[in-house]
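Progress note, sequence design subtask.
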């Protein structure tokens, strides 16, 4: 729950795609992918399904 909450705060506060800063965009997309993987693994461990799209 804390990771999902922190991710929501990050996503609300930070622009992920920055046309003027490719390095920052790549880093933020990598972070988002890492969070996606962790949340999917945790949900699988506890036996809860996650939507494939939102």
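Output:
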């Amino acid at each position: 729950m804390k990771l999902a909450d922190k991710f929501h705060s990050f996503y609300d506060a930070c622009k992920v795609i920055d046309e003027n800063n490719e390095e920052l965009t790549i880093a933020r997309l990598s972070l988002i992918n890492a969070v996606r993987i962790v949340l999917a693994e945790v949900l699988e461990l506890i036996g809860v399904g996650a939507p494939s799209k939102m």
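Residues 2-46 form one domain. Work on this subtask will continue into the next period as scheduled.
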